[in-house]
């Protein structure tokens, strides 16, 4: 099913929210200071996107054009609040760490953008897949950025995992630099570090894309809309 | 629960009514963006962009359906202007639509022309004169170099030639300062 | 093809940079005299790291390495960074700072002349934010210090992190006047008495000599140092007048920290400062004011680096808003018919 | 008292700048900063809505707290903001077509600027009073406008630089934003 | 008495190098064996030749007449025979060729009849016409036709005579002022009367004391003020000179006349004097030969004199590595010495490495601001450079690129040795080209829209004709109002019908060829061939080949689909 | 469609969606409310447990508000809770929220446990703005620095020992960052003084 693959490819790479569309940047930059936070928020966003995609796609017949944006926002805000309530009940530690960034998924531009651009014109299944793919793409970026920053800042991976899986998970933390070296590079943990990290990720992607393009020759001819040229 | 429903319901009724009224009052004006985009296109009308002329392409850009890098006659400079107008990042010309090349003019080889008028029908800017069965000529000052007249000619008598350079038409070149040693 | 003019009378860029380096020498000499050989070690470390980073970046970007590395701008950047480091700082501080300064502050932007932020200050700020502990360990000046480290001991500390037996760093450390002043004020103790800030005032004199040389050589416009020092002094005097107990006076502020070094060598970086006369005044005066505010109310002891970076981001807008009227287009000037 | 208010204003505008310190509202910051003129339009529009939203959301928050419905906060805020943005658009269109021409296309984008929701949420979290809320909103709006306009001017200049190809465009803008954020750390400690 | 000067912003003081060439009197040159006269010796449209190869002409006889509003005439510098009118290389940075009249002197110097012009009674328009016919253009560098600078007789307040000669090396105006001061003053008096100027100011840089003295002497009691200017390049720029002398600033895009001032170069005034008082058209000019030459100095040379003859006369050294046309600040490197001297050729400098050490390779701009400090137009040259380099030409225009007078002061002081003026010239050229392209696009848009409308109307008409209820339609063969090209007149022919018609056309063409063996009427415009038959054959062959090509192409297209 | 009709239609549509959304939310809230409150409570208890000895009551539920005058001595503007830990009904320890106002970069909020014998049981930093990497070693998550206070009383060390080493006291402090620990030590000492002053009442389980 190449259609689904195309949607996945778009979401994960070609139209990646964090690297290409540059939407939903605020949580990406703030919450990516370690892997656990990053992935948690990424998955929450992913869930909201999938659900809102489905909701919008299934309800689109009843949504008047002029009230589109407020109603989309209504749907998204509701779903986000549901997620927020669930976090507060079942992952309280994480709930405190993520703070206002859970409610802020509401205004995460990528959610509304997908609702508007994709979900409001597509069947439910595709909308769900698109939401999931976009969310997964965002989560992937968050995970990579989180890992890079956590490594650079404190030389660990998965610190804070106990907030998700309880105190038992404390041992899962991977100490990359020797603990007694007190390694730290604070810049990486601060917002500027997030900006630099994302910049280098995007630069890397663009360099990679260019290399691929060089290897495979110029892009294939764009499809000409039917009836054009006459 | 009831309180919640009442509160949100009240808010929604208030805002919904406001917006409902607002939506009607909002006039949908013609999109002035199309004109501004069209003004930046070279008007060669060559259809290389994949649209049947410059204006349709302008409309497609305004509607967000087309990229700004599909017009070879406009070249990088044209893309730069479009990017400036639309606040987008510059992207290089999409080679799939053709290469940017210096403007050339159509010249009809008058010894071969059979006067079939096919080229006249093809020319989007009426730059070819001549009546049926008469020899045809291109008005150089009005030819946009779109090459649309080349293909229909049954005897292949139309050639695209680059106008020669004279001191009057000569332009100062971009000062080439070899800073980079390799790309 | 090269066209007119066919004549040139400019001091070549390399010479400009060399003169800036030369202007730093009096201050460096004083700093070595005050703090010891460590200063030279930091200079050397930063220079090597900066040149190496510059060469690597140029190579990666495909530019002629020799020509651009030899333009001297990386050295200026490295020296200014090294001079703002604690003389006994561990070796990797200077190296890391220079790498960030050149790679992130300069080459990512396209190299010489294209950067938005002052590279040396980018390096400095990265360091002070990332390694506040190491960056605030200023040893006391040798002349006044409670303990004396000879050259080899200094180098041993810089490169090996070891101190002679029996001496802890606490024994060597001294708060710089700015730091001491703010710490005192925060704890309700009497602040400095408005006099010059001890030994660093001597240093200030060194930078002043170099700065005057640059002014005389017309390598820096007067608006920048004057605007900077003027705003700093006026604000300091104002606050001191309002509450002498809580705020040190103008002379103290001019004589301590990086005020004069900044005024003559950092605020004046041509690439990152505006080019119009009005823009330069606004830029430098704002930087001076911000320096004072950060010193007096912020968390960092010295504000020069932050103030300069903050104003760097205003430079393009200032340049645009302060365009002088072009010949024949001046309002109110005869000529508009 | 006036001094406290000034502190709130300056604190929100510079010390805890929405974009550079709180990291909110980045999408418009990155997206509408390629041209100085459009950034000025965006700054004006956002400043207006942000201030208005701070005031309106304070009212709503009072009601929600009175009825113990704070879990509806996000929902109520965002619906109000979305409606307010649309209404602003209408209002400007009706009263000043010239201004509308300038701001028109930026207005709808404001709804998804997370600063517009984030600042009211922070207001609610910090239990600010009405005047404080309004000033906090205004200060944040000023801070947003200031850095957006400066950033746009910086980016306009950078367009002409020999930036390495991989960094041209967005990566360089992000690095610049990062350095701006680093520079703004100089303000830390200057207000609560 | 000294006048209060109004110094302009910026400026530089390059080494003068005037001493090489200003020590000796204006010399002359033996008649060269050939004169190459470009038809574009001035700004504007080139002149239209009215002689043909083979004609013999007298000295001063008109060779070409002005074409269009901004143009000027061209005359034979000496008597002789026109041997060719053909593209020859001209003094232009491009090194391209342009239409030139080539004249071989007969050595007899026979003049046409020369008649002084009664400029006192003739109206100013008549005088202007006479100057145009005499080919007088500005000799200060730009070559703007002088008759256009006289205005329409409204008169001006201040007449400024430009004797500044601020560029290094050039001394032709200096020598002119020293040696022909009396004629020059007579010319100034003519201009003052014509323009009804109240004040006359002659600006001369104070590094030419002899010229100042000579002029003052010649002025005698006349109310002409000779003002010594501080030596500072580019005080000779018209706007800078006007500002210096009067304090008025002429904005870009405005003419000085609007402010009541007009400025003429001394050489121009002298030429005007010769043209009006002696009836001599502009056929020669004083040119400085200097630089790395054995005998630097000034010569009065006939227009069209090959530049290598001039350089031979001056004795160019062996070490010369190129020549500049004009001074080192504003001139350009000559691609070849084969061109002939033009009216704006005030100086030729032979370059040697000693005088012109090679510029070090350019470095990036560090925004030091030195250039802004010296820019007489008060621009921010580094910004213009930044935008021009990034090809953001519109931004450069916003920053007043077109106020730049290309004086080169900025590049002179740039520590990074950036050829700034090159960038400005490039940017200006691109902007002009873009403007032209924009106009062409507007034209194309209008024509395209007209065509669309016409086609729509035609379609509608057809639709109406086809509809059964339509009124009986006149048997139209040419429906819609036909504009320039007769459009496809017949009703839409089905494809095969069209093909048939093409075939018919081909057949017709073949028949015509076979029958009369005459070239088609239109072909007579072609360079005439001697024999018809080969042409016909050739045409046949061509058509066949072309048809084969076309068929091939179509086949290829088909297969691609 | 008239303007009013459009208004009514728009209002109704939005109303329908809003009601559905609210209903959904209210439902979910109802379902999670209990659990969320329990989670929050548990988090609070876990934190208190770090500074309190073993106990058999729920200190969070048993907390009483500290009146303003005493709260002010601990650096607060208004009332704050005091958390008692009881074993078999007797109060064995108290946990207090304390503010050290003079940290390097602003106030430092601490949670301090004090035993019946007047000894410090534990110190946890709730919130601070000290320089990361320099002043933040007071945070137990960063370094064990704060554990040195366990067992300290007003007499042990004696009064002039209640200071950091640099100032002649007994408590460690990182060289180059003495402002922060100074503030903490002073705040702890103030806390012990306040507790001593109200020892009788508080450990009897009374507010004052
Ligand atoms: C940008 C810059 C920032 C500096 N920052 C500090 C600082 O934060 N603290 C400091 O003590 N010295 C700083 N210095 C070093 C001072 O210029 C000066 O060398 C030092 O304060 C003299 O030490 P003293 O005051 O102990 O005599 C800085 C220098 C520069 C160039
Ligand atoms: C930078 C610059 C320098 C010039 N220097 C001189 C000069 O020294 N002498 C001069 O006669 N014209 C000079 N010109 C030309 C004048 O601007 C102006 O064109 C001339 O004086 C007008 O007189 P004309 O039309 O008679 O040539 C210079 C122009 C420029 C742009
Ligand atoms: C950027 C910066 C941040 C600092 N942050 C702290 C801090 O959070 N806590 C602290 O106690 N000292 C901090 N200091 C150091 C203080 O300014 C002061 O020098 C130090 O506390 C004096 O301690 P000492 O007597 O041990 O040298 C910081 C210094 C700098 C330069
Ligand atoms: C007067 C002058 C001052 C300079 N100041 C600095 C400076 O403060 N920091 C720096 O990195 N480079 C400085 N440079 C060097 C150079 O301009 C700088 O590295 C550029 O920013 C690199 O593009 C200076 C150069 C000159 C001529
Ligand atoms: S490619 Fe360009 S010139 Fe050709 S039709 Fe399209 S827009 Fe017009
Ligand atoms: S003559 Fe040919 S090339 Fe020229 S505009 Fe017409 S169709 Fe295009
Ligand atoms: S003189 Fe050269 S280096 Fe200096 S600002 Fe001008 S162009 Fe740039
Ligand atoms: S060439 Fe142009 S920009 Fe340069 S100094 Fe002259 S007028 Fe100014
Ligand atoms: S996520 Fe914050 S503005 Fe888009």
From TrEMBL, chain C:
EC class: translocase
InterPro entries named in the record: NqrB/RnfD, RnfD_bac
Membrane topology field: Multi-pass membrane protein
Keyword field: Cell inner membrane, Cell membrane, Electron transport, Flavoprotein, FMN, Membrane, Phosphoprotein, Translocase, Transmembrane, Transmembrane helix, Transport
Entry keyword annotation includes Amino-acid biosynthesis: no
Localisation: Cell inner membrane
E.C. designation(s): 7.-.-.-
Bilayer-crossing regions: 32-56, 91-109, 121-140, 195-215, 222-242, 248-268, 280-298
Cofactor: FMN
Modified residues (FMN phosphoryl threonine): 176
Keyword Membrane: yes
Family membership: Belongs to the NqrB/RnfD family.
Function recorded in the entry: Part of a membrane-bound complex that couples electron transfer with translocation of ions across the membrane.
Subunit structure: The complex is composed of six subunits: RnfA, RnfB, RnfC, RnfD, RnfE and RnfG.
Protein's name in the database: Ion-translocating oxidoreductase complex subunit D
High-level lineage: Bacteria, Pseudomonadati, Pseudomonadota, Betaproteobacteria, Neisseriales
Gene from which this protein is expressed: rnfD
UniProtKB/TrEMBL annotation, chain D:
Protein origin, superkingdom: Bacteria
Function: Part of a membrane-bound complex that couples electron transfer with translocation of ions across the membrane.
Entry-linked HAMAP family: RsxA_RnfA
UniProt keyword Transport, yes or no: yes
InterPro entries associated with the record: Ion_transpt_RnfA/RsxA, NqrDE/RnfAE, NqrDE/RnfAE_oxidrdctase
The UniProt record lists the keyword Membrane: yes
Keywords: Cell inner membrane, Cell membrane, Electron transport, Membrane, Translocase, Transmembrane, Transmembrane helix, Transport
Broad enzyme group: translocase
The protein's assembly and partners: The complex is composed of six subunits: RnfA, RnfB, RnfC, RnfD, RnfE and RnfG.
Subcellular location: Cell inner membrane; Endomembrane system
Protein name in the entry: Ion-translocating oxidoreductase complex subunit A
Stored PANTHER family: INTEGRAL MEMBRANE PROTEIN OF SOXR-REDUCING COMPLEX, ION-TRANSLOCATING OXIDOREDUCTASE COMPLEX SUBUNIT A
Transmembrane segments: 6-27, 39-60, 72-92, 99-122, 134-153, 165-187
Origin organism lineage: Bacteria, Pseudomonadati, Pseudomonadota, Betaproteobacteria, Neisseriales
Protein EC: 7.-.-.-
NCBIfam families in the record: PRK05151.1, rnfA
Recorded family membership: Belongs to the NqrDE/RnfAE family.
Membrane topology: Multi-pass membrane protein
From TrEMBL, chain E:
Provenance organism: Chitiniphilus purpureus
Protein name as it appears in the record: Ion-translocating oxidoreductase complex subunit C
Record region (Disordered): 1-25, 446-561
Residues annotated as domain 4Fe-4S ferredoxin-type: 356-385, 395-424
Gene: rsxC
Source organism superkingdom: Bacteria
Lineage, uppermost ranks: Bacteria, Pseudomonadati, Pseudomonadota, Betaproteobacteria, Neisseriales
Topological relation to the membrane, as annotated: Peripheral membrane protein
Top-tier EC class: translocase
Assigned EC number: 7.-.-.-
Residue ranges with Low complexity bias: 469-481, 516-533, 543-554
InterPro entries referenced in this protein's UniProt entry, alphabetically: 4Fe4S_Fe-S-bd, 4Fe4S_Fe_S_CS, Ion_transpt_RnfC/RsxC, Nuo51_FMN-bd, Nuo51_FMN-bd_sf, RnfC_N, Soluble_ligand-bd
Keywords: 4Fe-4S, Cell inner membrane, Cell membrane, Electron transport, Iron, Iron-sulfur, Membrane, Metal-binding, Repeat, Translocase, Transport
Quaternary data: The complex is composed of six subunits: RnfA, RnfB, RnfC, RnfD, RnfE and RnfG.
TrEMBL record, chain F:
Self-association and partners: The complex is composed of six subunits: RnfA, RnfB, RnfC, RnfD, RnfE and RnfG.
UniProt keyword annotations, A-Z: Cell inner membrane, Cell membrane, Electron transport, Flavoprotein, FMN, Membrane, Phosphoprotein, Translocase, Transmembrane, Transmembrane helix, Transport
E.C. number(s) listed in UniProt: 7.-.-.-
Top-level taxon: Bacteria
Subcellular location: Cell inner membrane
Domain FMN-binding positions: 103-195
Topological category with respect to the lipid bilayer: Single-pass membrane protein
Function: Part of a membrane-bound complex that couples electron transfer with translocation of ions across the membrane.
Cofactor names: FMN
Protein's recorded name: Ion-translocating oxidoreductase complex subunit G
Family recorded in the similarity comment: Belongs to the RnfG family.
Pfam families: FMN_bind
Keyword Translocase in annotation: yes
